[in-house]
Amino acid sequence: MICIKKSKKPKNRFVISVIIITLFSIVFSMAGFLKVNKDNLEKNNEMIINNIYGTGKDLSQTVQDVIDQVYYEIKLYSLADGLSDMDEKKIMKQMNFITASKQRYDNIVVLNKEKKIVYGYVDNPDVFSNSEAINNALNTCQFQVETIFNEGEYKVDMYNPIVDENKKISGVIFIRINIKELNDIMKRCRLDEYSEAYIVNEKGMFLTESKYIPGAIGKEKIDIDRVKLNIDYSRYTPYKDYRGQIVYGTYFPIDEELNWTLVVEVDKNMMEKLDENNSKKATVLATLQGIFLVIVQILLKRFLGVDINLKDITNSDGTMNYEKLTEYADKILENKIEEGNKDKSEDEDKNNDKKSKE
């Protein structure tokens, strides 16, 4: 009996096909990564600008929450026991406790309806008692607030009317707060080393510290109208900041009464450097992709006799077309499986013929 050794050709060809398809998968994965990287490079500026917008929005809400909390506190204190009937002992006890427990409070003063100071101290009591803010609080029974520059820093003065049980004005409570807390918030919420956030008043004067110019509070200012005009035109268009640097920015109004503005900016040059570094990485990866494609071409030609036309798996700009690549790989695999099955069938037919002849 003659023993016919089964051909290993189909198995070998199938194994080679699987290996080559695996290489295709590697190329496909690299191509997918390159496409994502390319898209990220193209949209990088937009993403960063949207990021500073989102950060600025959250930051503005944080600042507004702090201001609203202070507003709430002064209105709550004006309802404290002893204030409506101007009981000096009760007022002293309560105000001393409040002053000691709140670091943001620089001064608290309580006046009766005759503008006499019942609690607290000011340098010029007559000028203070007859100030426009005190008169407005007494005459209109409305909360008053203003930003003032005092002792080298900006502070907020608040005046709230005190009303008795008959809803008649019995006096005014005055609280001066420092805004050092806002500086800490600005520092914590900076995006990175290339960006900064700061608050200015209606004239553009710095209320919080500048990242780049020490001692800017009360000394440095920006052209707030020009900044708003540039950003309103398009926040994707760069402009010159107070240092003369080209930046992208966004702004948010802070409190209608105070009329402050929060500005968040990022340097355009730094963004371009980041883009350049990412572009170099993409170039290296694209080169590796090209090398892999050449290797795949050689392997397909050498072992399977298949010629790849790169136009069949790439776009007009030379980038990988993933749908075409997948279809191409599937087609090769199907063809090789069919060839393997065909070879197997032919071998079986030959064996059957041999057996029949025997």
Automatic annotation (TrEMBL):
Coiled coil: none annotated. Pfam families: dCache_1. Residues 336-358 are annotated as: Disordered. One of its GO terms (cellular component) is plasma membrane. Residues 54-265 form the Cache domain. It is found in: Cell membrane. This is Cache domain-containing protein.
